Amino acid sequence: MGDEILVEDVIVDGSSPVGGSISVWTLNRPEKLNALNLKSHQAIKAQCMRAEADDDVRCIVIRGAPPPEPGEGKRQKPHAFAAGADISEFAGKNSDDVRPFFEDNAWEAVWNLSKPTIAMVDGFALGGGVELALACDIRVASERSTFGQPEINLGLIPGGGGTQRLCRLIGYGRTMEIVLSGGMVPAQDAWKMGIVNRIVAHGDLESAVMGLAEEIARKSPYTTKVAKRAVRAALDLPFSEGVLMERSEFVALFDTQDKEIGVRAFLERSNADWVGR
Ligand code: COA
Question: What are 192-216's pLDDT values in tens digits?
Fold first, then answer.
């Protein structure tokens, strides 16, 4: 595999079950504003399989590599989470060429992870880039970030789930404006609309995200998955079915060791040493 994404598993001190880590994936094509090419998708999909299978991974953070120092006489490239799919891979392609790729893509691989995911956005999150952030459970952005679905300017529409995930997140009218205008949405506006959970100064972004990831990584890894599944069901199920589904997940948790561990830890004012089942 190439170096399209860099992976670091950060051990969470005091995690239980012991050995828990946050897997930090850095999109690593800063010269191209971390645009997602075929190899990036393959690398992300491979990491999704690895993270899903590795019990130690409790939470996943996706970020973009910062721009390199400009060469002599060259201008500094902007910060980016990812400025979209790699447009250079679109030229001259027809539907038969791109269909297999879009049917098995990184956006759905991230979306289908059972473990919690956070997008750490510093800079441009456009097109397939914002769609990758939308495929995460939580988005935290720096104040200098910019969001958008500019595909309309290429004679395209979002193809990584953007129309659907954005609509569920911020509603029909706002999604229509973003998708039809292809315009840029500054971080403040993105926060007001609910595209991002929080915005922080860019110097505080990493500590804010890693702090949140640590908080999540210290919960029972079994229960975080159940919680994610229950909230996710709200996107697909009619309300009354969703409430029933939540209730059945809640009741089933009473057969887990971690429920007993958590409740006893509260009553005894001690730390919960989760076992993950
Ligand atoms: N695909 C491929 N390459 C991309 C890219 C993308 N989505 N976005 C940026 N790049 C490349 C540029 O071609 C440029 O490469 P070069 O230095 O080798 O020429 C480099 O990244 C820097 O981008 P540049 O356009 O010079 O930076 P800028 O500061 O002038 O503009 C943007 C920044 C984000 C406004 C602009 O790059 C842009 O509009 N990108 C495309 C966004 C888009 O349409 N995404 C949806 C794709 S489906």
Answer: 999 999 999 999 999 999 999 999 9
User: One-letter amino acid identity for 179?
Assistant: V
| Mutation choice for ligand 1 from 33, 149, 163, CB with most ligand atoms inside 8 A | 33
Point out the ligand 1 atom lying closest to the alpha carbon of residue 150. 44
The tens digit of pLDDT for each residue in 163-193 reads: 999 999 999 999 999 999 999 999 999 999 9
pTM score, two decimals?
0.97
Our mutation pick for probing the ligand 1 site, out of 32, 88, 102, 146, counting the most ligand atoms within 8 A of Cβ, is 32
Could you tell me the residue range of the domain that residue 90 belongs to?
Answer: 5-217
- 59 DSSP β-pair partners: 22
Bridging pattern class, strands 146-148 and 185-186: antiparallel
Q: Is the dihedral of CA 25, 31, 36, 39 positive or negative?
A: negative
User: Both 125 and 67 in a single domain?
Assistant: yes
Q: Do residues 185 and 213 share a domain?
A: yes
209 with 225, same domain: the answer is no
